């Protein structure tokens, strides 16, 4: 087993283990830390799958942005008093049944399928300049989805600020 | 690296199932949101894995980036709603917000 394969299985075990631990964790803060572990391991897997820009975006946006906001949310929705936020599980049996059935179906269907690799097209970019090609096509071929995503982001952030503000409007 | 693409897909399936179980079974709104993030990441992993099967194309990675952008919007609006519900009802248990129930 060469080094990239070893790294691949290393990251895969970390991601699967942290996601499995999230099923049983009862402290919300530890749950957020486990999700950070999953996201960083997935960034490693993206690098091994030749998607460096997606990996860096994953680290910057997910692990650096979303999880920080979620940890803020945990701290803002915990009653002050020093004790950690520990929760209970409901519907454990049905959740386990649904999860196992779904996972079994997916694995069965995936294992019957053989996914063939397609050869590279002529003049296609190599794996070394993925980021440059991605940036150029983001500004040429994908400029409409890019601008739409920007507008969506602006709308969502303004909406989030309005919803979360303390301003009381009882008229609605 | 000659890892078969199936190993990516099995991990994606496991992450999606784990996210589904978390969404169903946890009694906390923020953990439900974390389960949703896990499911989005599972789909992202599938997109990147299939992009690896087609060297020279970038559609999968582009789709993954836009999924990340939409996940940011979802997390921001979701957390704002969670904070608002906490201010109104003093709870973060989704089953306790049942004013519209008959």
UniProtKB/TrEMBL annotation, chain B:
Membrane-spanning ranges: 6-24, 31-50, 62-83
For this entry, the protein name equals NADH-quinone oxidoreductase subunit K
Record family assignment: Belongs to the complex I subunit 4L family.
GO CC terms on record?
NADH dehydrogenase complex; plasma membrane
Q: Please name the GO terms that the record assigns under molecular function.
A: NADH dehydrogenase (quinone) (non-electrogenic) activity; quinone binding
HAMAP family on file: NDH1_NuoK
Q: How does it sit in the membrane?
A: Multi-pass membrane protein
- What EC number(s) would the UniProt record show? 7.1.1.-
Instruction: Give the matching Gene3D superfamilies.
Output: 1.10.287.3510
Organism from which the protein derives: Chryseolinea soli
Report the record's Gene Ontology biological process terms: ATP synthesis coupled electron transport
